[in-house]
Design brief:
about 140 residues; mainly alpha; 7 helices; globular
Length: about 140
């Protein structure tokens, strides 16, 4: 019984630490997105990225969770996307792009440290995310609308 209690206790402590770590990412990102969403920066970003978002059949505001995912991680992108009213197909496309092209600053530094050609690695992931985004938008447009 003592082993069970210690296991539950250790699991609870680890879960609490993980939650705190995630909140350190999610809450600041969420707050920043709220500020951006209601600032003059949002219309500028929408106009700047409208053609690119059209390639993925996404509304212009989808650029915010995509950029957030590039510089943070999937959790930051999820927190950001929750601020907008995306359809299932749009969320799926955003998620697929984010899953291929996320946390680039961290992964760039890691790839340099382990000896991979970092610029090629980033270019490959960028290209793959565009292809995956276009494919997902095409498929999502058929099955998820």
């Amino acid at each position: 019984m003592k082993v069970f209690i210690n296991t539950v206790k250790d699991g609870f402590i680890k879960a609490l630490k993980t939650t705190v770590t995630l909140m350190k990412v999610v809450l600041p990102v969420y707050a920043l997105v709220v500020v951006i969403k209601y600032s003059p920066l949002m219309p500028f970003l929408e106009e700047l990225f409208r053609p690119a978002m059209g390639l993925f059949r996404l509304p212009p505001e989808a650029v915010v969770p995509i950029i957030t995912g590039v510089f943070t991680d999937e959790y930051g992108a999820i927190a950001t996307a929750s601020q907008f009213n995306f359809t299932g197909a749009e969320l799926t496309t955003i998620a697929m792009i984010g899953l291929v092209f996320h946390s680039i600053p961290v992964e760039f530094a890691l790839s340099q440290r382990i000896g991979l050609p970092a610029a090629k690695f980033v270019l490959y992931r960028f290209t793959a995310s565009i292809l995956v985004g276009i494919l997902t938008a095409q498929i999502g447009g058929i099955f998820l609308c």
